[in-house]
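A.,

Following up on our hallway conversation. Structure tokens first:
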């Protein structure tokens, strides 16, 4: 959720919150996209713990995006759960031209899932990696 909604929820006892899903490809490549789609560059103690959720299908790109987020969040979550048409197509070609799929559409490729989790888990130094999955 966006910061304003996260802070409202935390006032009523929510202890853990997530960012909206961030497309890894444009986040890794574009300062403008980062400014528009990530609202926690300024760390607020009242908005902690905070987990950033990433979507994408390329381990190296996902790691670049996660490393940019790492100083500002408490964990990185990989989206393996989204069942939308956007996830099936890999996002909008305008900002994610190389991404072919994300979310639940990655699950049939167990090797890719393992590479995504392993690359992020091995490549991040400060925060853990989690995975969103729907059964």
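Then the amino acids I'd put at each of the 135 positions:
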């Amino acid at each position: 959720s966006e910061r304003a909604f996260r802070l409202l929820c935390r006032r009523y006892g929510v202890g853990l919150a997530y960012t909206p899903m961030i497309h890894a490809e444009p986040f890794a490549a574009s300062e403008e996209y980062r400014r528009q789609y990530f609202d926690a560059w300024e760390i607020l103690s009242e908005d902690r713990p905070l987990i950033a959720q990433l979507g994408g299908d390329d381990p190296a790109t996902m790691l670049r995006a996660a490393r940019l987020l790492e100083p500002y969040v408490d964990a990185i979550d990989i989206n393996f759960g989204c069942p939308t048409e956007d996830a099936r197509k890999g996002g909008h070609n305008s900002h994610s031209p190389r991404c072919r799929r994300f979310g639940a559409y990655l699950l049939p490729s167990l090797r890719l899932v393992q590479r995504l989790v392993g690359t992020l888990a091995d490549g991040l130094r400060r925060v853990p990696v989690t995975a969103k999955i729907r059964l």
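The chain is about 40% helix and 15% strand. Curious whether your intuition agrees with the design.

B.
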